[in-house]
Amino acid sequence: MRTRRIAILVLGFALMLCGCDDGGGEIKSGEGESCTKTADCEDGLKCFDLICEAPEEDTVSAQLCTPGINQDCACEGGGTGAQTCLPDGLSWSFCAPCIPSDE
Question: Taking the model in full, what pTM does it have?
């Protein structure tokens, strides 16, 4: 009986260590949830205006920016940073580095 309890405890501990996820460890946003880039969204969804949405079937996906180009951006709390158009052309990277201005 004692051996069986120990075996159950060891098995439970082993399962906790292994986990039961898909191995990616990354949680993706579902439809209607927030995002900063398409890679943040679940498969089949695109990041439009910081929200994961299903692309419309009958419309050709128009790029919002040219992949790889940089632009200035306003940082939260003031200052200016830069962001890059992501490879899908549908969203921008985070605005960085955001160093507060000396004003």
Answer: 0.38
